[in-house]
Design brief:
Blueprint (H helix, E strand, L loop, with lengths): L25 H13 L7 H24 L2 E3 L5 E3 L2 H18 L23
Antiparallel strand pairs: 1-2
Helix pairs in contact: 1-2, 2-3
Length: 125
């Protein structure tokens, strides 16, 4: 495959779509099914989708544990501190977005409307 040519897309019928990996939990399985219903993902790219789904599972698992332990926990010296899982959950959520961007599914770039381009300085007349 040439670097400058897009990867070929294969349109799957519902029965032909690759099965979700067995190790996915509820959040990852839900993401897999949503993506496969809405987009045609070629077989080599399913590994990227699998990583996104595993990251979604990690984020969901951490969120569940944060709810059990609370957002504020007691630190090693006895002081209240933010639960460190909050940062790990955020990192897992960012990984999901990054993997979906690699697949061309997630686009968070703002659409530009009419007007002056950003960082453009007005000219003198």
């Amino acid at each position: 495959m040439n670097l400058f040519q897009p990867a070929p897309l294969h349109i799957y019928r519902q029965a032909e779509a690759p099965e979700p990996p067995a190790e996915l939990a509820e959040a990852g399985l839900e993401l897999w099914q949503k993506v496969m219903r809405a987009h045609a993902i070629d077989e080599p790219l399913t590994e990227v989708l699998k990583l996104a789904c595993l990251s979604a599972d990690s984020a969901a698992s951490m969120r569940k544990q944060i709810k059990q332990e609370g957002e504020i926990v007691i630190g090693s010296t006895g002081q209240p501190t933010a639960n460190p899982l909050i940062a790990f959950e955020g990192a897992a959520q960012k990984r999901v977005v990054q993997f979906l961007k690699q697949l061309g599914i997630f686009d968070d770039e703002p659409k530009r409307g009419p007007g002056r381009p950003p960082n453009a300085k007005p000219g003198r007349y």
